[in-house]
From TrEMBL:
GO terms for biological process: ERAD pathway. GO terms for molecular function: misfolded protein binding; protein-folding chaperone binding. This is J domain-containing protein. Residues 220-266 form the J domain. Coiled coil: none annotated. It comes from marine metagenome. SUPFAM superfamilies: Chaperone J-domain (SSF46565). One of its GO terms (cellular component) is endoplasmic reticulum. The chain crosses the membrane at residues 140-158. The lineage of its organism: unclassified sequences, metagenomes, ecological metagenomes. Keywords: Chaperone, Membrane, Transmembrane, Transmembrane helix.
């Protein structure tokens, strides 16, 4: 067999060999974004001669190690995705990512280092945020506490009306309750200008008053109130209140009481 046949056999042998038999292992990191956030992915890709492992490390701007793990790879081309959402990247700044693997051809350790900028302010991922809600079991005591607070405020504002002591006038069905005469004569806050007749007094002019005085048509009001004619205004009002309480229909019964009450109310 001549050299020509050996050459043809050798070429056929090379044609059936895997393409990566003489290829060196090559690994790289894809960082194609200017700014990375929590929802982004860093891709590690390459081609290795045989099953091997790589050491993956991420260091934050404060030189703290965020990730340090070993990844097993199968011979041939590979792609490994690094999801940033799986790690606690809480600081904005420049992060360093490095890969270390063994080159069997040269029997050396190869290290690849790259940097990327990470923005921690955009870490809020609406799809990955757990919304805290108040459960139904917690809503019940909160609702009860709200009702108790409202009732407490109501009782505090209405405490005087609720806890007021009733007197004899409140227990009986008095006729004066209909026109509120009792309050008129017993109120401590009654104005000195209050009228007690229950009716508006008719105004009379000076001429009518003089004629009535000459004809003695005006009753002796001082005598009715049982006071001296030189009594002061405060003494007259005080005596009127005393007689009004004394001869009030709720206190006295009979025609005399009504007559006396009518006289002092003239």
């Amino acid at each position: 067999m001549d050299y020509k046949h050996y050459f043809i056999i050798f070429m056929i042998f090379l044609a059936f060999l895997p393409l990566d038999v003489f290829a060196d292992s090559s690994i790289d990191i894809s960082l194609d974004l200017p700014i990375y956030t929590k929802s982004d992915i860093i891709t590690i890709f390459g081609n290795i001669e045989h099953d091997d492992s790589i050491n993956l490390m991420i260091i934050d701007p404060n030189a703290d190690i965020i990730l340090n793990e070993t990844v097993l790879l199968i011979q041939g081309e590979f792609t490994y995705n690094l999801q940033l959402n799986d790690y606690d990247l809480n600081t904005s700044g420049i992060y360093q990512i490095s890969i270390t693997y063994h080159d069997t051809n040269n029997s050396t350790e190869i290290e690849i280092k790259k940097e990327f900028f990470y923005d921690a302010a955009q870490n809020v991922n609406p799809a990955g945020v757990d919304i805290e809600r108040i459960s139904e079991s917690d809503q019940i005591p909160i609702f009860i506490i709200g009702i108790v607070i409202i009732l407490g405020i109501f009782l505090f504002l209405a405490r005087h009306a609720i806890f007021r002591r009733k007197n004899e006038y409140d227990d009986e069905d008095w006729q004066s309750k209909k026109n509120r005469d009792y309050e008129k004569y017993h109120s401590e806050w009654m104005s000195d200008e209050q009228e007690f007749s229950g009716k508006e007094k008719k105004e009379i002019d000076e001429n009518e008053f003089l004629k009535s005085l000459q004809g003695k048509n005006i009753s002796d009001y001082y005598g009715i109130l049982e006071i001296q004619k030189n009594a002061s205004q405060s003494e007259i009002k005080k005596q009127f209140r005393i007689l009004a309480k004394k001869w009030h229909p709720d206190k006295k019964h009979g025609p005399d009481a009504e007559k006396k009450m009518a006289e002092i109310n003239m």
